[in-house]
Specification:
38% of the residues lie in helices and 11% in strands. It is α/β, with parallel strands linked by helices. A four-stranded parallel sheet has the order 2-1-3-4. The two termini are 31 Å apart.
Amino acid sequence: MTTEPTNDAHIAGRRVHYGDFYGLNELPDVPLFAVYGNCQAESLRVLLHGALAGEWHGVRLPPVHELTEQDLPHLHTLLPRLSLFVTQPVAAGYRGLPLGNNDVLPRLADDARIVRIPVMRWTALMPTLAIVRAPGVGDPPVAPYHDLRVLTAAARGESTVELTSPTPEAVWAAREESLRQLRVRQDAHHALDAASILDAAGPNAVHVINHPGNGVLTEVAAAILAEAGLSATVPDPRRVLLGGIRAPIYASTLEVLGHDPDDLIGGPHDDWIIHGEHIPEQDIAAEHLRWYAQNPSVVTAGLARHEQLISRLGLDGGLRR
């Protein structure tokens, strides 16, 4: 993932896109709010801005993983002006910068309202999909996610992998583990209950494990408004907010979870859909196997991070202990 601008044109375009943040635009004389976090944060800002149109103004922030040391003065100037600050958990010293919640919250005005929301990840619909981070290594090619079927094949030294549908036991294991982890994170950070919203959302809960569908985002936005004591209705954004990448969702997985496959918008699909292009998951698996061979530290990190889930999915056969 590229986290910093790389050329003058990109920097100029970025400053215009985040013109409110960089002080290029005159902000309206209404209460200001911002949503602090990853790509989910900006989608929630869009919904909240629509709900509060004319009464509040939502300041578009760069995602926290893109903030640089040069951005800190702009962030410090904005924070005291906010009347509402919605934030995902950000650790102290994130990316070596004072961007953690403990760093930024003290800079808010004493009367600012604060609403904490979790980082939403939901694997029930795509049980073998995972996020893996290894120091100094970016995302795998084509689809920037990891399939534990492929990662474990790489760990066994296999040059090919057959992507069979997860068993019913594996589907339920992924759903239970996803729900457990999200509730643990919510409780730890005293955040809103997004887990229940995701669990009740059915086949359209997410497009990929960390990109919720519009229905989930709308309900979370409504919960934010309620928590902040604001009475407003979240309007339809009239576009799919986080649908640029869509992971395969099998009909068999939906059926195990008790969902009607016909209720999935666009229907079940074995392909990845990336910016409208269908790419067979077997093609991406082959690309990722080659990439893992060049980046074995990612395989090691993935096995360690997801050891319990790999076992519950029945993917641990032949792995070294």
